[in-house]
Known about the structure:
The structure holds two protein chains of two kinds. Chain A is of the alpha/beta class.
Amino acid sequence: MKHLLKIYVLIFLSIVFMLVYMYFSLEKEQKQFDKNINGLFVIQAKEFSVNLEKNLKLHVKKDVYLTLKKNRKLRDRLAEELTVLTTDTYKYVYILYRDSYGDYRFLVDANKPDKGEFGEKLNVNKRVWNKAFHSQKPLLFSQKRFDGLWMSYITPVVIDGKTEAIIGVDFSSEVPIRIRKSTQPLDAGFEYIFIAILIMLLTLFYQTILNLKTKKDSITDPLTQAFNRNYLRDLLKKINIAKYQIIMLDIDHFKKVNDSYGHKIGDNILHDVSAIVKETIRSKDIFVRFGGEEFLVFVQRKKLNDRMAKDVAERIRKKIQETTFDYEELSINITVSMGVTCTPEHFKNSSDAIKHADEMLYIAKKEGRDRVICSDDMHKEVKIDTSLHFNEIQEAIEHQQVICHYQAIFNTKTKKVDKYEALVRIKKEDRIIYPNDFIPKLMYTNLYNQLTKIILEIVFTKIKENQVKISVNLNFSDILNNDIFAIIIDELEQNRAFSSWLIVELLEYELIESNQIFSDRINIIKAYGVKIAIDDFGTGFANYNVFQTIPIDIIKIDASLIKNIDHSEVSRKIVHSIVVLTKELGIETVAEFVHSKEVMKITEELEVDTLQGFYLAKPQENLLDD
Amino acid sequence: MKKIILLLSIPFLLLAWDMQYELKIYATLLHNLFPKKQSIKVWSDDAKKEDMLSIISGVKIVKNIKNADILIVEKDKKLPKKKLIFAINYLIFKYYEKDAIGGFYWKEGRPNILFLRQNLAKHHIKLPSEFNEFMENRL
C-alpha cells in the first residue's frame, strides 16, 4: 500500500514537472519568435531613423530647437517627410527635444489626425529617453500600451557632441500579437492547470491536517488528554517493552468521590490528576488512560537495571498527596496507589507485564493505599497460557461481554427445578470462553472486583425477571476482601426485595478455619435472607468443624464422590453418612456430577435433596423455564 | 466553490480593469477635486465623454453650464472662465491655458495628464501628492 502511494506521488510529481517544463519552454520559444519577428521591423526602423537624422542634419547645422522654432516652413517640410514613413506598422514618427525641466516636447510630428504641436509635451518613459539622451546611443524598447504591445526605436540627434533632439519611431506589428493571441488559450490552459494543481495541493494539505487531527482525536481521551485504549492496543503491537517500565495508577476511593461530589467533580479530579502526571513525566514517556480512574505510564528506562519508574511513581504520588483540589467551594484531598513493573522483559508479553503492574497495584491497595509497590524481585515467569490476554479480558468486561450460563438443580422428590447455579462466561463474538481461561489472570487485580459486581448484577436481574433461586460462586477470600464485600453488600442493598432468592456458594471454605471477621460477614450477608452453600464437601480438608464456624444452609457433595457412586461402595457410604448428618443439622444436600441414570437413581435412594449434572441439564444461557 | 470561481475570474477582472483605465482616471480626478461633494455636476461639450462620465458613481451630467461644478471641454471656446475647466484636447487646453486647471488627452497612443499649478491655486484646489508628477507650470 505504501509502495503504491509512492508510485502515485511519483507519477503526480512527474506530470507537474513535465507541465512546468512545457510551460517555460513555450514561453521561451514565444519570446524567441517575437524577437525574430521584431528584429525585421527593428532593421527597418533603424534605417528610417538613420535617414531622418541625416535629413535633419542636412537642414539644421546647429541649435535644432531654435532653428525649428523660428522656421515653421522647415517644420512643415520635415513633418511631410516624416508622414511619408508612417504606415499601419510604423504609426508614430516624431522628433522631440528635452526642455530645461527635463520634459520631452515636440519639434516635429508626422501624426495627422492628432498632431503634436511644436513645444507640446509628450508623456514618454523618461527613464529610457534620458538614457538615450545622455548616452547618445540609439535604444530599442518595448512598451505595453492600451492598444497593444509596442516597440519604440529612439535615436539621439547629436550635433557638436550635444544631443539636440531625439527621433522616435513607434511601431507595432500585428504578427507577433496574432501569434500571442493564438497561443493565449494554451497559456490560459497552463494557468488553469497550475491553479487546479495548487487547489489540489491545498485540498490535500487541508485533508492531511484533518486526518492528523482525526487520528489524534481517535487515540486521545478527551477528558484527560492522555492516550486511550485504541492507542494502547496499537502501542502494544509495536512497542519493545524491554525499553520501558510500567506504572499502573489508580485514584484511591474514586467511587466515593463520584458518589459524594458528583461526576462533574470526578471528571475534574481525573483531569487534574492527569495534568499532574503529565507534568511529572518526560515527553518521551507514554501516558495512557487505561479505563475509569486507572492510568498507565510507560517510563522509558536509561539502563536495564534502573528503578526510574519507581522514582517517577513516588514523585507523582507525593505531588498528588500534597495537592488540594479546589472546585468552587470544595477542597478535596485525594491519594493514588500505584503498581510498578520494573522488569517487563521478564514477562512473556506486554499484556502480562501490565497485568503484573495491576497485581502490584492490587497489593498497594490492599496494604492501605497511597503507596507505590514495585516488586521487581517478585516478578513472575508467567506460565498461564490461556486464550485471552489480560487486555482482552478487560475489553470484554468493559464491552459487556460477560454473561452467565445457568445449570438447573432438580428436587429429588418433585423432579422439578429447585434452583440454578450461575456460571460465568465471556462471550466474544460467537466464542464462549470459560472461567478457567480468564479468572486466574484476574486474580489479585481490580478487574476481579469489577467482574464480581457484574456477575451479581446479572444474577439479580435474572432473579427479578424469573423469581427463581440462583447460586453464585464466591471464594472465602472474596468475603474477607473489603472491596468485594462492599460490592456484595451494595448489591444486596440495591436488591433487598430479591436477596432471599440468592445463594452464595463458597469455594475453598476448607482454608477458613476459625475467622471471626469471616463469620461476622457471612452473618451480615445472611441477614439479607441469602442462603449459604458450601461447595465440594466431602473431600480434601473437609472437616465437620465447618458446621460450627459457618451458618450453612446447603452443602454440595463433591463430584468425586458422586461420579463413581454406582461403582464404589465407599463413596456410597460416605454420601449416606453426609446425608444422615446434614438432615440432623437441617442442611440441604446437593449431589453434583449426576452424569447417568444409574447415578441419579442411587442418589435418589440415598435421599439427597437435590441433584445437578449433565444427565439432567447442561448449563445454558437461558433458564429451563424461559 | 466561490473561492475557485473568484480565482478563475481574476484574469478577466484584470482585463476589464485595463479597459476601464480612462474611466478610472476621470473617477479619481473628479473625486479628488471634489472630495466633499456627494453629487458632482459635470458639463461637457463632448457627447461621448458625457456617456462615459455618467457611469461614474456620484457624477451627474448637467446640460446647463451654470449648474455645473466642472466643465470638460473638447472645443467650446465661449465658456465662462470662472468655472473649473478641464480640457480634453491640447489645442483647447492651450486656448484656456490661463484658466483651465488641467487636461487629459491621448497623444501618440499615450495618455497625457497635465495640471497647471497657478490655475489650481486660483481655484484654491489642492490635489493629493499622488498627482505631483502631473503638475506643470506651463503647457
